[in-house]
Amino acid sequence: MIPGMEPHVLILAGGLSYEREVSLRSGRRILDALRAVGLDAVVRDADTALLPSFATERPDAVIIALHGATGEDGSLRGVLDLCGIPYVGPDAQSARVAWDKPSAKALLREAGIPTPDWVALPHDRFSELGASAVLDRIVDRLGLPLMVKPAQGGSGLGAAVVRDAAELPAAMVGCFAYDQTALVERYVPGVDVAVSIVDLGEGPTALPAVEIVPQNGVYDYAARYTAGLTTWHVPARLDEDVAHRVALTAVAAHSALGLRDLSRVDLIVDPDGGAHVLEVNVSPGMTETSLLPMAVGAAGLDLGKVLATLVSRAVSRRSAV
Amino acid sequence: MTGTTLDDYSDRYAQRMRGMMASEIRALFAVTSRPEVVSLAGGAPFVAALPLDAVGEMMAQLGGEQGATTLQYSGGQGDLTLRERICEVMALSGIDASTGASPDDVVVTVGGQQALDLVSRVFLDPGDVVLAEGPSYVGALGVFQAAQADVVHVPIDEDGLIPAALAEALETVARAGKRAKFLYTVPNYQNPGGVTLSSSRRDEILAIAERARLLVVEDDPYGLLGFNGEPMPALRARHRDGVLYVSTFSKTFAPGLRVGWVLAPHAVREKLVIASEAQILCPSMFAQTAIATYFATMPWKEQVKTFRQIYQERRDVLLASLTDLMPAGTHWTRPEGGFYVWLALPEGLNSKEMLPRGIAARVAYVPGTGFYADGSGGSHMRLSYCFPTPDRIREGVRRLASVIEQEMLVRAEFGAAAQPDPSRVTWTSATRFGRPGGHTPAPEVE
């Protein structure tokens, strides 16, 4: 990058995950936001043409808008490290831990951050030990209702709430269609909130929490990406002290996982005001109905300017190496 | 403090938009554009087999020398020269002057899809009943949904629509105090069933329809793509007044030009033209001239023969691969033309629920649920052989077989068979009402 010149930003979007379409929409939204603040940016897929393109068009920084494994499991970040190209967001190792929900939950619990009790088991273990016997133990240990979801993945794909033990086998099959490992969690009733964390140079800061109220009670794929099917309250309708606790918990989760720049922490606030972290996303959605852009707007910030700041922080990390 | 749904228009949408929402299936299909995925899902013709240089040269001339005409509006009914060409094409299916076919009664449309939409606009009020094969073309179901019609599926078997089931469906509809406005059918190499209505059944179906004064909408995109011998005479060739004949150049030439047509009795044709003018003013003159010129000056019948050979080879590879690789309990149809095989999964499996496993294994198919108005059909899937090369087809089937085996294993382990699927029943009997349920087709699924 030539000093004084605006950085050339590469936005990676698309990929091969189930969330390809969401990623493409996120990528376009980021492109619009960056161009609106005068940055030079392009969007491209992470495919076999990517690395050769660095020879002719080397970006000053990369924003990874890929959702799913490639974007979030740290592997692509590792490749960018090999190429010496800086990127917005956490490093490969931290991303890998956050991406794997059971690993992330273990780290959060170790740090004293509340997260619902869970069991994570690969499909093979059910095969070896007998599915029905293992499921019985899970219900004995965690009770009902339960939340079943793929250990890795997002957008609510493959996730199901199980209120009756008889529904559990079908939920497991649905989950294993998406991933080899299932995370079964105690279902904590309460208010769904998402807290976006950004670090613009003064340490990780929580943006206003977004409260999620899906029309039909389930925040599934359709509810997430069809405008009109979910009501979002920004800021969330929480008492001031609860909102404060939620923000502190989210920042603590971001820090406990060693993340940087930005993340989105999904939590449940129980009727007593307790905040339980469900998961932390290192490549949060940026679509028209995504939560991070909503929170940025509610904080009175401009998405393009926030991203531009994160880009310049990424570039300076590279310069510092 | 109030929340936002990010949709300030939610109290203003038309009722017909209810139920149209973001779908996981569409999301999963997004990856089929990547070369790593073998897509047995799409219905895209293999246009790379066209003489693209010659077609390109022709197009350049049409835009240049003839630009003053081709870049202008045309009449609402469509260009007369093209309508004459269309009559020549239909004559191959037995629809000629002796059966009352005339360019005067042809309406040119934006693909077969607009033809279906026009027919629906002209004939359907909300709550009207349409009879359609079960399974039926997903794009037609989308049109009937937009028209707020109820669809009653009529089962098919290896010989196409079952006449006794049609009679039964008519009785069911009558008992419900309703009247079926028309029967929608794809008699040749049906989408998605791959089956063809036998000659004797054609007469039976027409006789039943005539007795019930039931209009027949015959959709025939694949009629010229049969692998064995001459095309079978169309329903329209046998009955001039009771059949609306819909077809397209998408499979015999190029879907990118979006040109189709409908041949209708005189009185209906008038209504269709008026409806089309209200909808689109006129079809693209450039596309119409391109097609008329192609069919007048290039060896189009030879080209169709080339397409047939390509598709036949791919059909053979798909069927042989299925025989070699599919687990016991899997069954499929054996199409004699067209693009599709309809595959029944082993008992207890659901093609929609299994799709993510397929995508993870880098193989795509269309779950059978898209082809039923009420979203049943999960026991089946549609496989297309029109676009992937033979090697890719075999690889796709190999991956799919492994996906099915894994799904069987997981379901057996958890004792979680999919809910019994009504489509398994309706294949041989029974009919039911269903309002198409919000799954408009993604273009790549056509």
Report what the structure shows.
The complex is a heterodimer of chains A (321) and B (446). Chain A is 41% helix and 21% strand. Chain A is an alpha+beta fold and 321 residues long. In chain A, the strands form 3 sheets. In chain A, strands 8, 9, 10, 11, 12 and 13 form a 6-stranded antiparallel sheet that branches. Chain A has a 4-stranded antiparallel sheet with strand order 4-7-5-6. Chain A has a 3-stranded parallel sheet with strand order 2-1-3. In chain A, β8 (191-198) and β9 (205-206) form a beta hairpin. In chain A, α4 (75-83) runs antiparallel to α5 (92-99) and α7 crosses α8. Chain B has 15 helices and 15 strands. In chain B, the strands form 3 sheets. In chain B, strands 2, 3, 4, 5, 6, 7, 8, 9 and 15 form a 9-stranded mixed sheet that branches. A 4-stranded antiparallel sheet of chain B has the order 10-11-14-13. In chain B, α5 packs across α10 (266-280) and α12 packs parallel to α14 (390-414). At the A-B interface, α1, α7, α8, α9 and α10 of A face α1, α13 and α14 of B.
What is the CA–CA distance across the termini of chain B? 45 Å
Strand residue content of chain B: 5-15%
Number of helices of chain B: 15
Please indicate the percent range of residues of chain A in DSSP E strands (runs of 2 or more): 15-25%
> How can the largest sheet of chain A be summarized?
6 strands, antiparallel
User: How many DSSP E strands of chain A?
Assistant: 13
How many β-strands of chain B, per DSSP? 15
What class would the helix/strand composition of chain A place it in? alpha+beta
Mean pLDDT reading of chain B = 91
The oligomerization state is: heterodimer
Most extensive chain contact? Answer: A-B, 46 and 35 residues
List SSEs of chain B in N-to-C order.
Answer: HEHHHEHEHEEHEHEHEEHHHEEHEEEHHE
Rounded mean pLDDT of chain A is 93
